[in-house]
């Protein structure tokens, strides 16, 4: 007995486990819940090791409110015994600290052993679901005091974090523990900075990226200035420090800090004790220089020069609207010189990159193709419109840059990319539950209502499609890409053009054929997108369908045919079958609305206002019967042109 007790003490003194993140939450459970929890946890360490480092399971009855769901993992490259020991320790600690609560999560590190493990149990299924709350922050108690150039440190720290985050959130299908990264970085004034990030492997890459980004933002917001710290959420973990807190760093990625944009004078200032006298002189001289700089800045602002911060409040060069003008050098730094790793997507007029400003704010940077006349038009259009449009379901334009032949638009960063990346990807489509799909459809409708009727302008989007619907952190939709939008007078209802722009399959027939567009043209595009969301099928060009699949009908024909035959179930996406929260009759209402939107006869299509009334109504409603639709594969007008 005595020997066992001494071994117990020596073991944990040697191991030196540190709970980087540990929290109990939720309601108190009954004895049956506790029994199921203990039964799951008893075999958990062995199950984790036997399943390549990650294991999830559940036990109990939902109806009796005693079902327990558990998820556990060890870091990538774990040693079997170290993994088991870590999990056994955290299980014992969890039972001790959370004896009666239904939910808990722990991210545990061991400074003496090469271990990182995670344990999480809840009373609801969490597999494949991103959960950001609750979260814990454990900052280093020491404060940064001695670094001479905090601006430089901040820039290099952000670059280090971005590299670690991108590596951690990139899916590696060859490993079950695919979301993991440990880096060791040499900064200008610090020999080594260590960072580690890991997500549970059941997440999508976007969810992992978002979770880790939230952790980084939490640390910056709450404890910036501390010499390290860790942030844990149920789905991910982030830690950084100035010491080798993790033995795996002998195998970690070692990189140099990126070149600094700071001036050499700022970096060299005060580094040698021989400069002591010079610093005293500087105390006298600097105030005079500051006064001179202020005077010069006032003169420069009259000449509308870009300030050294890289951002200034300026005026829209087309109609005098106040907005931010970004410095090109700042945007180049924020996007790692527009590196391919930071690219979010590419369109007909240019590429979109993710960027991070020196203050940590994430942005989306749209760099238009240089020398493109169409790009010039799109740039002007978006600046002109988005400076005067503000709605929660429209993407927000933060500012622009037009230096030399560079034309760049800077938007708010929307972490979940665009709708098409979910609805047309079988690996992600299950994340779009009916509740989420309904909210997206309703949000897009609200954005269109604002454009068509409620804003100070009347805007026809002309290129509404799944790839132009961005999804924020809560999967709320934001209508984007206004490069092809047209401005109407308030009493104008229809326009015509000889240059048809947009995307086949989403174009209303009167627009594709004759160049006629109106609010009802956007309604048609909305209907196509709505039917895509219901079915999980892309509204492909008929010619593509024949070549790829040998089919003779497009999505609209398919939906109308099944609707007419009463075979509603064949329309509905099997990966998101209606649940108790979204009953079948509500899904049928969505199909009905979609078919009304894509009618050939413009006058029979509903207004976006009518659509919203139908969507928001929980009572039985009467809607018109949809008429046959035509699937258009190409404009008939010989003078038409297209941007895809």
Write the layout of secondary structure elements.
Layout: H1 2-15, E1 17-28, H2 31-42, H3 44-50, E2 54-59, E3 68-74, H4 80-97, E4 101-110, E5 115-122, E6 136-139, H5 150-168, E7 180-186, E8 193-199, H6 205-223, E9 228-233, E10 236-241, E11 253-256, H7 264-268, H8 276-302, E12 311-315, E13 322-326, H9 328-334, E14 343-347, E15 350-356, E16 362-368, H10 373-386, E17 397-401, E18 408-412, H11 420-423, H12 426-429, H13 434-454, E19 458-460, E20 469-471, E21 477-479, E22 486-488, E23 494-496, H14 509-514, E24 516-518, H15 519-535, H16 542-549, H17 555-564, H18 584-597, H19 608-616
Parallel strand pairs: 7-11, 13-17
Antiparallel strand pairs: 1-4, 2-3, 3-5, 4-5, 6-9, 7-8, 8-10, 9-10, 12-13, 14-15, 15-16, 16-18, 17-18, 19-22, 20-21, 23-24
Helix pairs in contact: 3-4, 5-6, 13-15, 13-19, 15-18
Structural write-up:
- The protein has 19 helices and 24 strands.
- With about 650 residues, it is of the alpha+beta class.
- It folds into four domains: about 15-125, Gnk2 domain, C-X8-C-X2-C motif (Killer Toxin P4, Chain A, 2-Layer Sandwich), CATH 3.30.430.20; about 150-255, Gnk2 domain, C-X8-C-X2-C motif (Killer Toxin P4, Chain A, 2-Layer Sandwich); about 310-410, Phosphorylase Kinase, domain 1 (2-Layer Sandwich); about 420-615, Orthogonal Bundle (Transferase(Phosphotransferase), domain 1).
- A seven-stranded mixed sheet has the order 12-13-17-18-16-15-14, with helices on both faces.
- A hairpin with a 5-residue loop joins strand 20 (about 470) and strand 21 (about 475-480).
- Helix 3 (about 45-50) packs antiparallel against helix 4, helix 5 packs antiparallel against helix 6 and helix 13 (about 435-455) packs antiparallel against helix 19 (about 610-615).
- It is flat.
- Residues about 1-15, about 250-290, about 300-310, about 310-320, about 490-495, about 540-550 and about 630-644 have low confidence and may be disordered.
